[in-house]
Amino acid sequence: MSDLGRVLRLDARRTALLVAVPVLTALATAAACLSLSPAVAYWDNSVVALVNAVRFLGPAAAGLAAWTAVRERPLDYLRDLTARSPATGVLFDLLLLSSATLVAYVVATAVVVAVTLVHAHAGQPHPLGVVSGAGALVLHVVVGYLTGRVAPHRATAALVLAATSLWAALRVPGMSWWSLVPPAALSRVELFTTLRPEVFAVQVLWAAGLTTALILGYVMWATRRFLLVLPLTMALAATVSATLGLHRSGGTVAPAQAKPVCRTWPIEVCVHPALRDALPQLMAAATPLAARLNGTPGAFRVVEQRPAWMPSTVADGVASVHLDEDLSPGYASRAVRQISEALKDARACASGDGYRALVDAWLLGDEPPAAAGTRAGHRFASWTEQRRRDWLRLHFAEYRACALGPRDFRAPRTTESRLHDARDSRPA
């Protein structure tokens, strides 16, 4: 009865994993969701969120595995009563612990995928990124459990948790290739770029090679079967090869083409598909500017979002702008202001021009600047919308070169100006 009671206690201790699964699930889901953007659903960043969540879930899984190994160590003699290999129980425990951790990871993955699908998502999923995170988790479980088997002390679980947490904390996104070693730390992926699957493939190889080497090393130590030296050597060689591959990886992202989504009336506005929600506000902000620049060398009929590394320009009727990826308040106004800035001659405008700011305020619908209090400012404010547009067509070269002066705002008594006066004085 005594032996039966101890076997029952052994099985009862394993049921602690049923309690650990929801805890690990909550931890993984919270870590992944905190990394997701609330405004933009980009598949690449969803994968980045999952990979980064492993840095939090992995140490917890390793600590749990070490705690389990330490608790079950005194009952190993019950397994020795059978004719099975002494490594069988260890392998079974590793399978059980890994399964519990992967269940939590799968649930977190499902939550992230659901959140991404609910939004206006863009880009392509990267299954290898999910597999890479799963491989890193299994490696943590193996490290934690085997450490608990080799050093069955009460403090082992806490030390494993501290060591794996420190290992994960050393990962600084984008600093060096070292941050790509599992558990990897990845930076957020900008629009018009995408993750490189080959990096994830090398990470899978690294985690699989080291996991296999650790398991084979322990089995060889426990069973004294030295024939395992050859596969152990191959596993270590795969790990070394993967390490060199990560060192030569050259980064995790590459430029990517994205078919834009557009709205075509009254002008054409095109943005990255992940930012399709920006179309209405961007259209509303750009249309008045396009109407006021119509007939000038700075006229445009198309607004296109460009990657952040490309300059904002206005050429051949196309205005290129940059957008905030999180669509923070005022993004449309900032994009339209980029068009105004692109119309400047950078060298000629280095010293600034208050009168150009007066025209910019009208073009952008902003509050009048200090120059509005001058005689030229009062005269410009008294003109009708149409007269301002006609005036800009005549003085666009001075506007571009920031060479406007008070004389440019005088109303010459030409036939054209008299027609304007007559039109302005006509009763509504």
Structural overview:
Helices cover 60% and strands 5% of the residues. The chain is built from 16 helices and seven strands. It has helices spanning 2-14, 16-35, 43-72, 76-80, 86-118, 127-150, 156-169, 197-223, 229-247, 279-293, 331-342, 354-364, 375-382, 385-394, 396-400, 415-425, and strands at 193-195, 253-255, 261-263, 268-271, 302-305, 314-315, 318-321. The chain has 428 residues and is mostly helical. The protein has a five-stranded mixed β-sheet with strand order 3-4-5-7-6. Strand 4 (268-271), helix 10 (279-293) and strand 5 form a beta-alpha-beta unit. The chain has two domains: 2-255, no CATH class; 261-401, no CATH class.
Keywords:
428 residues, mainly alpha, 2 domains, 60% helix, elongated, transmembrane
* Count of the domains: 2
- Name the average pLDDT: 84
Count the DSSP helices: 16
Instruction: Characterize the overall form.
Output: elongated
Secondary structure class reads: mainly alpha
Strand-residue proportion: 5-15%
State the helical fraction: 55-70%
Q: In angstroms, what separates the terminal alpha carbons?
A: 106 Å
Number of strands: 7
The neighbouring-strand order within the major sheet is 3-4-5-7-6
Rg, nearest Å: 33 Å
The ordered H/E elements are: HHHHHHHEHHEEEHEEEHHHHHH
Major sheet: 5 strands, mixed
Low-pLDDT runs of 5+ residues are 412-419
List the helices and strands and how they pair.
Layout: H1 2-14, H2 16-35, H3 43-72, H4 76-80, H5 86-118, H6 127-150, H7 156-169, E1 193-195, H8 197-223, H9 229-247, E2 253-255, E3 261-263, E4 268-271, H10 279-293, E5 302-305, E6 314-315, E7 318-321, H11 331-342, H12 354-364, H13 375-382, H14 385-394, H15 396-400, H16 415-425
Parallel strand pairs: 4-5, 5-7
Antiparallel strand pairs: 1-2, 3-4, 6-7
